[in-house]
Design brief:
The chain has helices spanning 6-14, 16-27, 42-58, 73-85, 105-110, 122-130, 134-139, 146-157, 177-185, 201-206, 251-254, 268-290, and strands at 32-38, 61-67, 91-93, 166-170, 190-194, 210-213, 231-234, 238-239, 245-246, 260-261. With 291 residues, the protein is of the alpha/beta class. A 5-stranded parallel sheet has the order 5-4-6-7-10. Helix 8 (146-157) packs across helix 9. The radius of gyration is 19 Å and the shape is globular.
């Protein structure tokens, strides 16, 4: 079974224009997103442009603030502080990766959690890891990382039972791997995080009911690494040696052994985009509740 994400993404996005219109009426202006753009990272920049375009189609104003390798840490920190405190910016999207000299704890500490739609702020991440069950995740102030939430929504959409399931997450990034592993435990799964120092990766995966890869290595996961009937979720966005867009999983090799598998493109990606769009609206709705 192919776990395509376009249907779920459409279900999420269909409700958003009407909600955006209600927000605009109450605000006296359209909701507004500000995104940080680093053109040197082609993948994240293209994704940001897609998010901006989708936001505008939903009834949300959006702007991109470009940075370069020459942007100083002080300049970038001031951008984050200004956007976080602005009364006319309702949502912030700070893609990763950033230039190394800008990716600092001080930046993430100054990113306003209530506007941080991708859950990168220290406060949002801390709140997430304080959650013990899924109800607490759903009601936490701030936002979980959108890609991790997209995986969870996709699993729920296809009614894949996580309670008691053995799950292997390949990748330990703060963007996907670690928060996703924690969110899975909040659904009562038993989770192991695998990475480049895992001694016997194949053995770890072969004992897992669900395998989720988020390591950024083109077609790394092969059929020999999973057990028959496993559910395989591919979070990877890569280009192979020929420049072909692909995931972490060798889809053609794995699809006949897995019981369910996400494609790349068309799997987790569309749902992530929809989650980010919905988070913009949620950030506005929460702000209006305080007025």
């Amino acid at each position: 079974m192919i776990l395509e994400g376009k249907t779920l993404a459409a279900l999420i996005r269909d409700t958003l224009p009407a909600r955006a219109a209600v927000c605009a009426q109450k605000l006296g202006r359209k909701p507004k997103l500000a995104g940080i753009g680093w053109a040197a990272d082609y993948g994240s920049y293209v994704y940001l442009k897609k998010e901006v375009e989708a936001a505008q189609k939903t009834g949300i104003d959006a702007q991109v603030i470009d940075i370069t390798e020459n942007t100083t840490h002080a300049e970038f920190l001031q951008i984050i502080k200004n956007l976080s405190s602005s009364r006319t910016i309702d949502a912030l999207l700070v893609p990763k990766p950033l230039p190394k000299h800008l990716n600092t704890l001080e930046v993430w500490e100054n990113l306003a959690a209530e506007k941080d739609i991708d859950g990168s702020s220290v406060l949002s991440m801390g709140r997430l890891f304080m959650c013990k069950n899924w109800k607490e995740v759903e009601t936490m102030r701030g936002f979980p990382p959108a890609t991790a939430m997209a995986v969870m929504k996709l699993l729920e959409h296809y009614k894949i039972n996580l309670s008691g399931a053995e799950v292997a997450v390949i990748g330990r990034s703060a963007t996907v791997g670690k928060p996703l592993a924690h969110m899975l435990t909040c659904k009562d799964a038993t989770v192991k995080i695998c990475h480049s120092r895992t001694k016997d990766l194949a053995a770890a995966l072969q004992n897992s009911d669900i395998v989720i890869s988020a390591i950024g290595k083109a077609r790394f996961v092969k059929s020999s690494m999973i057990k028959n009937g496993a559910v395989v979720i591919d979070v990877g966005t890569n280009q192979d040696a020929q420049g072909v867009f692909c995931g972490d999983v060798d889809f053609e090799d794995v699809k006949n052994k897995a019981s369910q598998i996400t494609p790349v493109p068309g799997g987790v990606g569309p749902v992530t985009l929809a989650c980010l769009l919905e988070n913009i609206i949620i950030s506005v709705e929460r702000g209006l509740e305080k007025v």
